[in-house]
Amino acid sequence: MKNGLLIISLCLFSFAGYANQCSEYWHKENYEKAFTPCKEEAEQGNAGAQDKLAYMYHQGEGIEQDKQKAFYWYTKAAEQGNPIAQHNLAYMYDEGNGIKQDQQKAFYWYTKAAEQGYPNAQSNLAYLYYQGEGIKQDKQKAFYWYTKAAEQGNPNAQHKLAVMYDEGDGIKQDKQKAFYWYTKAAEQGYPNAQSNLAYLYYQGEGIKQDKQKAFYWYTKAAEQGYADAQYNLAIMYYQGEGIKQDKQKAFYWCTKAAEQGYLDAQYDLAFMYNNGDGIEQDKQKAFYWYTKAAEQGDAYAQYNLALMYDEGVGVKQNISLAKKYYQLACDGDYKKACNKLK
């Protein structure tokens, strides 16, 4: 549900009247030609050019990557009030990216950029308040800054704001507002929000239940590689909920999620292979996926894996390993496994 990734802005920043070669080549993304005029302008104290030069050093665009020089020029531009430079400087402090990590300084520079209305900085500042990183945790301030960024169209902030409304986390729960902000982020292609929006449609939370729309949004997120959506899409295909039942497509999406380490998908995929359900029966592949799920602590998978070792199905019989996995499943409160041990 939650995405804690910080954002480094790679967008452009231009000033009125700043129509020189640095800006001209920059906008054409011809960084090699932009480098020299940007360096000259930067050395003359132009904050916009300093930010651009820092970016080129940071990303290795038009010049060999040098994060210390990026840090130097971001600092110069940030001290002149350039909000994107302030944000990127904060990011370097936040991540320890080319410099020693310092979240208090990250907080300082995110705040400077956020107060100038820069949405990425507002979103990242909100994250620091939410997590209590570099500053005392304050979810109300997190909510404030997520709202500021969300209202400017930042999809990460829109999603995080939706999560706060959805869970009543730091604010009063409001499923309708959660739906609103999930929709805003989902429409911008944000996969976490697409998956959560699909869930609201599926459950009818904050909105009238609509499994076809749930299917639509799960598909959007699944196609972007979001494992939770891939698994839920597989379930919809398997059960024929809101769409025509199609176990082959269920198998396809279950596999996609399982390959990303999604526990429930690994167990269900093993089940499908074990029973030839929607796919040709393959006990060895069933064994493989039960093992993957068992290693993540799933008691049901541990029990089924124990059975396979116990009976020598899909794997060479091994009573010792059977006992091991029966015990693990029993410890996970799976009574059938406890009975097997007795």
Question: What is the strand and helix layout of this fold?
Answer:
Elements: H1 21-27, H2 31-43, H3 47-59, H4 67-79, H5 83-95, H6 103-115, H7 119-131, H8 139-151, H9 155-167, H10 175-186, H11 191-203, H12 211-222, H13 227-239, H14 247-258, H15 263-275, H16 283-295, H17 299-311, H18 319-331, H19 335-341
Helix pairs in contact: 1-2, 2-3, 3-4, 4-5, 5-6, 6-7, 7-8, 8-9, 9-10, 10-11, 11-12, 12-13, 13-14, 14-15, 15-16, 16-17, 17-18, 18-19
What does this structure look like?
The radius of gyration is 26 Å and the shape is elongated. The chain starts with 20 loop residues before the first helix and ends with a helix. It is built from 19 helices and no strands. The protein is mainly α and 342 residues long.
Which descriptors would you attach to this protein?
disordered N terminus; 342 residues; mainly alpha; 19 helices
Question: Helix count, per DSSP?
Answer: 19
Which stretches of 5+ consecutive residues score pLDDT under 50?
1-19
Mean pLDDT: 93
Biggest β-sheet strands, sense, barrel = none
Query: What general outline do the C-alpha atoms trace?
Result: elongated
Radius of gyration: 26 Å
Share of β-strand residues? under 5%
User: What distance lies between the first and last C-alpha atoms, to the nearest angstrom?
Assistant: 41 Å
User: Which structural class do the helices and strands define?
Assistant: mainly alpha
The total strand number stands at 0
Helix content: 55-70%
Q: Helix and strand succession? A: HHHHHHHHHHHHHHHHHHH
